[in-house]
Design goal:
By secondary structure, the chain is an alpha/beta fold. About 35% of the residues lie in helices and about 25% in strands. A 6-stranded mixed beta sheet has the order 6-7-8-3-9-10, sandwiched between helices. Strands 2-1-4-5 form a 4-stranded antiparallel beta sheet, with helices on one face. Strand 9 and strand 10 form a beta hairpin. Helix 3 packs parallel to helix 5 and helix 5 runs parallel beside helix 6. Bound molecules: adenosine-5'-triphosphate (ATP). The site of adenosine-5'-triphosphate has 11 residues, from strand 2 and helix 1.
């Protein structure tokens, strides 16, 4: 369960300039398994997503994940909430898939031999078994995004927050990642510009000017967004 209680995020303006309100008046209870966040560029979607794992903290109000306040229990929240970025290069820090997933598993599996076995199992599950020792730089964009997802899911988070995870991918890889996300047991909060993917969510939040302006079931909320943006 993700909860936002009267959340606002305000950034300090440059010297002499007024502060900038990035999000305001966000009040949400999100028990749904599939939540999509859509909206124009710069509307505040990433900020909303980053609040869920404490990457951004509220200036006022509270964000709770399973009752844990992100401002007071950041480490516990981050163990519960996995975060996937648009660009997998932001996430992949080790030279090979084997080492990258092993790093993710370090806390969860202290025994090196068992960890090594689990790494192979994880990479196999994501169709990357063939690429365990290939340089991360040699992977395609789609393979990198799958590896980033594998690393995050290996830590067994209860919630997965994905900030435009398919934006850099071609149609084929977009489908692979979409299907993978759809198959997960975890609660998934997906920030996306892909309105088809958003329409499949149980609940869609439309963000505009730092506020949640539409909150509803997938297809109806996407339609409301199309009307607001006058796009067909
Ligand atoms: N730390 C900050 N200081 C000042 N302004 C910020 C800061 N972080 C975000 N902003 C501004 O807040 C607004 C919302 O940013 P955010 O990244 O959440 O939007 P977004 O909806 O995810 O955009 P996009 O679809 O382009 O990724 C933008 O105008 C951004 O420039």
């Amino acid at each position: 369960m993700i909860e936002f209680e009267s959340v606002a995020v305000v950034a300090e303006g440059s010297p002499g300039a007024p502060d900038v309100t990035i999000l305001a008046g966000v009040e949400l209870r999100l028990p749904e398994r599939r939540v999509a966040v859509i909206g124009a560029n710069g509307s505040g979607k990433s900020t909303l997503a980053r609040l869920v794992n404490g990457l951004v903290l509220p200036t006022s109000g509270r964000v709770l994940v399973d009752g844990l306040d992100t401002a007071r229990h950041g480490a516990a929240v981050r163990r519960r909430v996995g975060f996937v970025f648009t660009d997998p290069d932001a996430q992949l820090v080790m030279p090979t898939p084997r080492e990258d997933v092993a790093l993710s598993l370090r806390r969860l599996e202290p025994d090196a031999a068992t960890r090594a076995e689990r790494v192979v199992g994880v990479l196999d599950r994501f169709g990357l078994a063939r690429l365990v020792d290939v340089s991360v730089h040699a992977l395609s964009g789609g393979q990198k995004q799958l590896l980033a997802l594998a690393g995050v899911l290996a830590t067994e988070p209860a919630v997965l927050v994905c900030d435009e995870p398919t934006t850099l991918l071609d149609l084929r890889w977009r489908r692979v990642v979409d299907e993978l996300l759809a198959s997960l047991d975890q609660q998934v909060l997906l920030v996306t510009h892909d309105l088809e993917a958003a329409g499949r969510a149980d609940r869609v939040l439309v963000v505009d000017g730092g506020r949640v302006v539409v909150d509803g079931a997938g297809p109806a909320a996407v339609e409301a967004y199309r009307s607001r943006m006058a796009i067909r």
